[in-house]
Automatic annotation (TrEMBL):
<feature type="domain" description="Cadherin">
    <location>
        <begin position="309"/>
        <end position="413"/>
    </location>
</feature>
<dbReference type="InterPro" id="IPR015919">
    <property type="entry name" value="Cadherin-like_sf"/>
</dbReference>
<feature type="domain" description="Cadherin">
    <location>
        <begin position="194"/>
        <end position="308"/>
    </location>
</feature>
<keyword id="KW-0812">Transmembrane</keyword>
<dbReference type="GO" id="GO:0034332">
    <property type="term" value="P:adherens junction organization"/>
</dbReference>
<keyword id="KW-0130">Cell adhesion</keyword>
<dbReference type="GO" id="GO:0045296">
    <property type="term" value="F:cadherin binding"/>
</dbReference>
<keyword id="KW-0597">Phosphoprotein</keyword>
<keyword id="KW-0677">Repeat</keyword>
<dbReference type="GO" id="GO:0016477">
    <property type="term" value="P:cell migration"/>
</dbReference>
<keyword id="KW-1133">Transmembrane helix</keyword>
<keyword id="KW-0472">Membrane</keyword>
<dbReference type="InterPro" id="IPR000233">
    <property type="entry name" value="Cadherin_Y-type_LIR"/>
</dbReference>
<feature type="domain" description="Cadherin">
    <location>
        <begin position="4"/>
        <end position="84"/>
    </location>
</feature>
<feature type="transmembrane region" description="Helical">
    <location>
        <begin position="530"/>
        <end position="561"/>
    </location>
</feature>
<dbReference type="GO" id="GO:0044331">
    <property type="term" value="P:cell-cell adhesion mediated by cadherin"/>
</dbReference>
<keyword id="KW-1003">Cell membrane</keyword>
Length: 717
């Protein structure tokens, strides 16, 4: 209640309220000043409210006192239960842990005021999960309550935890949560074989590396703690087998390490040990973490192919051995109980195998052709053996035959040498080192010897020094050599081998004399060296060649000028009367050109021409024979020419292009008219030569000769 000292209780004072929650949560009686809550309060929602109050005069509406501020605090009550905000929980703890081993800590939260009463005081307890686990009432830490909890017995546990406020007293509110606890595995169990003896059966034909059986030891542990390693205990038959671990099934896989033979041994017995890879030292006192079992393997008898006495056969034979010579034999046996007979034959693959044959019963190998070591030094082929009782069962072996050499080829110089000697060489100087090669297969210790041939030993030019290591040196025997006297020397060298029979050959070395400097370095071995002693240098030779070329050019120019001058002498001056005659380089068309036209046909019309090919052109095809009627006597030349023209027009062999034909008759229509005397006037008086002056300067002299002279018939005698 609010009350002002100025309030006399007569109703002249009015109380007002403002601030947090005024009018919504709290209200005030304007006359008495009593404050009331108009709805329920929640401390967890808002723990206090700040309000302002004032006393006002009813009549004047003016404040009677300054405004005052006050706080209304909400008092807490236990209306909230504890809550596990992180639940439910998941935890794990190793199996076989001791009592009190830490598992997990849980925590519950109470929204009530922890400073007022016991409303927020929480106490923890286990409602489900005893006697395996315990919890601290104050801290909420969960621990193991029993020793040696075994995962293999029970792996999962569910624990129900309760948190209660009011210190756990009656009337307190409580909340619960679940904790799922898993026991993790530790290696507390050794592997154990379910039985002490394992029986396996294996065919004797099983290949090496083949898996012939599986055994398994059981380990109740999990993960890496259950990984098992298998080992064969050294003993009877254990060296023929091997065992590995299948990483997915943890089984022991027994594999064959060596071949089996039923005829040799029918059964094998050995022990296998299984042990854990990852041990836990805390459980060593329990006992050894391994177990042992016996494995018995029975070998099954199978029908096997024959077996050769050797994995490979090597034989030797001399080349040129006669055909049919036995060079060796192979042997195979049937090791089965029945002991069948064996037959041999060659594995034909190529023509090389035809050089040898094999006896099908005895297995002896003989030559079938003459052998040549230089052609093939080694033969490699296969022999197959099969059982008579079961030909499908076969085995194969490789046979290598080395062809031994017979000394049949003489040694020769290994490479062609280009030997040279200086003109200033001294006696005893080595100018070339030579080696030899032999096509025969040289046995160990074979040596080659070198010497001069008998005819060259008497010449004082060169000698051969045998170094006795299959090489020799060519040495000079003279003090200097002259290239001008002899440019090449041919030295015959005899080379012998040391095999039997001894083979030898004569090899000719070509030695060229060269020009060298004082240090023995070759400067030139070509033709130039011959001219150098005369005193002509390279520059002098080049100068001589240039002079010869210049002289040739002068001669050519002189001949060209002479020809040009000869042509100029043929040209005449304008005053020469022969200016009227024009000279051309080409001739033809006149009467003397017998190749262009036969003028005899015009002179004698009776001449009948046979099939005559024109000589002024080259026809593409053969002409057809033309038959012309003979010209009658007193036939005009004009008619004859027209007749020839028509014949040429219809001739299929005539060229398709225009051709110039020269006739003796010019015809009418010429500007100068005809010069022939056929149509000339009978007397010179009828001639008018004035037109010659119109023909130009070339006819000026003719015009003067005939134009100026007047004809006088009286002077004609």
């Amino acid at each position: 209640q609010l009350h002002s000292d100025l309030d006399k209780g007569v109703g002249t004072v009015k109380y007002t309220l403002s601030g947090d929650g005024a009018g919504t949560v709290f209200t005030i009686d304007e006359t008495t000043g009593d404050i009331h809550a108009i709805r329920s309060l929640d401390r967890e929602e808002k723990p206090f409210y700040t309000l302002r109050a004032q006393a006002v005069d009813v009549d004047t509406k003016k404040p009677l006192e300054p405004e005052s501020e006050f706080i209304i605090k909400v008092q807490d009550i236990n209306d909230n239960e504890p809550k596990f905000l992180d639940g439910p929980y998941i935890a794990s703890v190793p199996e076989m842990s001791p009592v009190g081993a830490y598992v997990l800590q849980v925590k519950a939260t109470d929204a009530d005021d922890p400073t007022y009463g016991n409303s927020a005081r929480v106490v923890y307890s286990i409602l489900q999960g005893q006697p395996y686990f315990s919890i601290d009432p104050k801290t909420g830490v969960i621990r193991t309550a029993l020793p040696n909890m075994d995962r293999e017995v029970k792996e999962q546990y569910q624990v129900l935890i309760q948190a209660k406020d009011m210190g756990g007293q009656l009337g307190g509110l409580a909340g619960t949560t679940t904790v799922n606890i898993t026991l993790t595995d530790v290696n507390d169990n050794p592997p154990r074989f379910p039985k002490s003896i394992f029986h396996l059966k294996v065919p004797e034909t099983s290949h090496i590396g083949t898996a012939i059986g599986r055994i398994r030891a059981v380990d109740p542990d999990f993960g890496k703690n259950a990984e098992i390693e298998y080992n064969i205990v050294p003993g009877d038959g254990g060296n023929l087998f091997d065992i590995t671990t299948d990483e997915y099934t943890q089984e022991g896989v027994i594999k064959l390490k060596k071949p089996l033979d039923f005829e040799t041994k029918k059964a094998y017995t050995f022990k296998v040990e299984a042990s854990n890879l990852h041990l836990d030292h805390r459980f060593h006192s329990v006992g050894p973490f391994k177990d042992t079992a016996t494995v018995k393997i029975n070998v099954l008898d199978m029908d096997e192919p024959p077996v050769f006495s050797k994995p490979m056969y090597t034989m030797e034979v001399y080349e040129d051995t006669p055909v049919g010579t036995i060079i060796g034999a192979v042997t195979a046996q049937d090791l089965d109980a029945g002991s069948s007979s064996v037959r041999y034959f060659m594995d034909w693959k190529n023509d090389v195998d035809s050089y040898f044959t094999i006896d099908a019963i005895e297995g002896t190998i003989a030559t079938n052709q003459l052998l040549d070591r230089e052609s093939t030094a080694q033969y490699n082929f296969s022999i197959i053996a099969s059982k008579v009782s079961n030909p499908l069962l076969t085995s194969k072996v490789n046979v290598i035959i080395n062809v031994l050499d017979v000394n049949e080829f003489p040694p020769e110089i290994s490479v062609p040498y280009e030997t040279s000697v200086c003109e200033n060489a001294k006696p005893g100087q080595v100018i070339q080192t030579i080696t030899a090669a032999d096509k025969d297969l040289s046995p160990a210790g074979q040596r080659f010897s070198f010497k001069l041939s008998s005819e060259a030993s008497n010449k004082p030019n060169f000698t051969v020094h045998d170094y006795r290591n299959n090489t020799a040196g060519i040495e000079t025997r003279r003090n200097g050599y002259s290239r001008r006297q002899q440019e090449l020397y041919f030295l015959p060298v005899v080379i012998e081998d040391s095999s039997y029979p001894v083979q030898s050959s004569t090899n000719t070395l070509t030695i060229r004399v060269c020009r060298c400097d004082s240090d023995g370095t070759i400067q030139s071995c070509n033709v130039e060296a011959i001219f150098l002693p005369v005193g002509l240098s390279t520059g002098a030779l080049i100068a001589i060649l240039l002079c010869i070329v210049i002289l040739l050019v002068i001669v050519v120019l002189y001949v060209a000028l002479r020809r040009q001058k000869k042509k100029d002498t043929l040209m005449t001056s304008k005053e020469d009367i022969r200016d009227n005659v024009i000279h051309y380089d080409d001739e033809g068309g006149g009467e003397e050109d017998t190749q262009a036209f036969d003028i005899g046909a015009l002179r004698n019309p009776k001449v009948i021409e046979d099939n005559k090919i024109r000589r002024d052109i080259k026809p593409d095809t053969l002409r057809f024979t033309r038959h012309r009627p003979p010209a009658e006597d007193n036939t005009d030349i004009r008619d004859f020419i027209n007749q020839r023209l028509q014949e040429n027009d219809v001739d299929p062999s005539a060229p398709p292009y225009d051709s110039l034909a020269t006739y003796a008759y010019e015809g009418n229509g010429s500007v100068a008219e005809s010069l022939s005397s056929i149509d000339s006037l009978t007397t010179e008086a009828d001639q008018d030569y004035d037109y010659l002056s119109d023909w130009g300067p070339r006819f000026k002299i003719l015009a003067d000769m005939f134009g100026e002279e007047s004809y006088n018939p009286d002077k004609v005698t």
